[in-house]
Amino acid sequence: QVQLVESGGGLVQAGGSLRLSCAASGRTFSIFNMDWYRQAPGKEREFVAGIRWSGGSTYFADSVKGRFTISRDSAKNTVYLQMNNLKPEDTAIYYCNLYPGNYWGQGTQVTVSS
To answer: Can you give the pLDDT at residue 27?
Structure first.
């Protein structure tokens, strides 16, 4: 089993920044990739960004390219999502996901005010 704990959410004004963290514990020896998703009220959960654990290649949804970056600390089994130039449409609950196994964290709320 794997446990994921997200943190770093909060309330920020448009144009501001936040850094989310997701720490993995448990059977983490076989992490292939970790991704961030988000779900806004009344909408489906959508992919935001991801990182391959080996090699560190990254990939992003078009809506966040150039504003968000993703990184990892392999020693801490932690993935980070740096979110800059936040917009009100970024408001959502942000979840991290670990593959293989399709594990999910409990989510962290990000609210961007206009």
So the answer is: 82
CA dist 4 and 103 (Å) reads 7
Tell me the one-letter amino acid at 35: D
The DSSP-derived string for 18-49 is EEEEEEEEES-TT--EEEEEEE-TTS--EEEE
pLDDT at residue 28 tops 80: no
Report the C-alpha gap between 60 and 42 in whole angstroms. 22
Identify the CA nearest to 79 among candidates 99, 50, 100, 54: 50
Percentage of residues in the chain having pLDDT higher than 90: 89
Q: For residues 88 and 97, give the distance between their C-alpha atoms in angstroms, rounded to a whole number.
A: 23
The CA-based dihedral angle spanning residues 27, 33, 39, 45, taken in that order and rounded to the nearest 10 degrees: -100
- 114 and 88 Cβ atoms separated by less than 8 Å: yes
